[in-house]
Target: FxSxx-COOH system tetratricopeptide repeat protein
Amino acid sequence: MGAGAELIGSGQGEFPSAPHQTVTASHGSTVYVAGRDVTITHPPAPVPGMEAVREPARLLRVPDVPGSFVGRQAELARLDAAVTSSGGRGRIVLHGLGGSGKSTVAARFAELHAGRFAPRWWINADSPAAVEAGLARLAVALAPETAGLRLEQLVELAVHWLGSHDGWLLVLDNLTHLADASVLLDRVKNGTVLITSRTSGGWGGATTVAVGVLPRAKALRLLTRVVREHWPKPDLTDGKQLCAELGWLPLAIRQAGAYLGQTRTVPTAYLKLLAEFPARMFTATAENDTERTIARVWHVTLNRLTNTPLAGHLLRRLAWCAPDDIPRWLFTPGGEGGVPDPDVIDAFGRLAAYSMITLDAEAVRVHRLVQAVSRTPDDDPHRRAEDIADARDATTINLAGALHGHNPIDPATWPRFRTLLPHARALVDHATPESDTPATCQLINSVSQYLLDQGDPTTTIAYLTRATASLARLRGHTHHDTLMSRNNLARCHETAGDLKRAIELYEQVIADIERVSGPDHPAALTPRNNLAGAYLATGDFGRAIPLMEKTLADRERVLGPDHPETLTTRNNLAYAHQAAGDPRRAIPLLRSALADRERVLGSNHPETLTTRNNLAYAHQMAGELRHAIPQFEATVTATEQVLGNDHPDTLRNRNNLALAYQAAGDLDRALPLLRQNLADSERVLGSDHPTTINSRNSLGRACVAVDPGQAFTLVKTALADSERVLGPDHPNTLTIRGNLAGMLVSSGRPDLAVTVLSAVLKQHERVLGPDHPDTVTLRSNLDGLTRK
Model:
């Protein structure tokens, strides 16, 4: 983000830096969550050096192995041999049909080798997001002080720890493709990774171990053991026939045995129930046999639970969540911290007794096949379409309510969002857009703002596109919620660098509000402010500045001259003049804005500090370094005191100060500060955060005079990272590419510089337009080189 950009305050957009500048500061704009505008803050926790974190011998996250476990000696022996032959640095894949017992075999292997591995960690790996969530939990378990960090930071810390230690066992349960765990497997080659999967191929050089159905004798022994856990002297006549009907699948046999034992039902009667209530084949999956078996067990079990009707309802609700770590408080009146409902506790207990769910004090787990059955309407009275829809809507309301009022951009709320994100995504992905309700759209908006702040604009755009279309269908194209969702969608496109689409959406929102409610309606002020920022980002000062002036006048009239949104718009207008190359006009406006913010908000308010930073940068642009540097120094000191040494605003402001030192020719102060700031950014924000990328670019440009080799390496790395993370056409990527060309000129390589500048100029003309200030500057630089 650019030097004049500002941390938003209740509905304000801010703007990127002047052409070719890599000075950075806070950046934000209006986002609309759960019916209100929110304020962005980012206070992260300190991060340890993960290579120094010792192996925790007692750290264990592996499911308990049932006491009824039988057989699998051959599979366990092959696992042991594979680990031995790899020297504890191998990948092993347990593959087979769902319900064949792959996970139980993996848990048994981990149990048998408690002294061999430390730690032993289990991750549900049925999606890339689930893998990242499991790695994030591992990072927090290893270093609890990291709990407040971003998801991608926690993933990076876990991968770094695994890559710097040996002797651990990591189970990736239900992985489909290697690519789904590429965040880990592409980088970590030590330790033992044990994968369970339904797929048998595509595992590269990994050792594969097939897990089939149980042999007949072992299946009957499993049934007997499970039944006797509840019924000491059962009648198991026709038990072998029952096992055959269940397809010899351990999961189905275990569920059936729990039912027989709890209800004192003989296998013959159970077979009659299966014949009377056959489960239907599912067309949505290729694993029809497995799902048919699970469906039969699910049906007859729920029949026996009809005296606890809440059990079936809860199971249908659980079906819309991710399978693991479903918080029990989601089903508590009043949510987390509420008083538990004894009926819910009883229903959970009965479901657990029949092995339909796995229950602990904090969370619920449900087998994903049971969930698939429970979400699928059928003639089965337990799976009526209306009941499944009611369960879906109830789960949606609970998830949306659990996130309502929690600012997704406040790091203090991130643990809650990380807990609920897998369940929110599961629900949204399983439900069809046609079934969306206003609560679904509210949930999508909350989750989307969190994902955008975590650096995932692609998913955010897809989600908000759906929410906007659903709100238009449910409430009309000009309803307030629809318009604010479209404003949020525009903001996502702007963050992703698609300024053209962002401007189109902002203009549509404003036009709809003004058409329905009149040109002076307050609801138009927020998207109008954001539209002005998007115009400014494209270099269209002729439209940006007049629109900012009009927005400022309207906010002064509607909200008052001292309203925080008015103050932010005043700051934005000043920065617009600065970005337009008129720091002399910007400086008095910024001084006035600073005085107003100090008077209204206080001298140490984050938004006041942002204006002070912007004023310092305006002095630097005007060539007044004697004024700029003291202002930057004061801003850094105050930001450290107010927000902490590792706050993203602090990191950006330090970068600005270092670049001011560089501009003054004081590399002795600039380079150490830039190096330390890059290290801090990588540690706090992660290597791929835009602030870190810009910090790497800044250090590279500063190093060019003292170490050209290191300088080019840093800037090329920053360029590759920006292309990968933000995209090749993102404005930040274009700026870094232009910086690289400028470095070629200063290093005495004009021929190569001409080639690079020509390519960069074409891209600027295509993406930003021929009249954008950056494009004009590049064209002038290229003309100057070609004339020499």
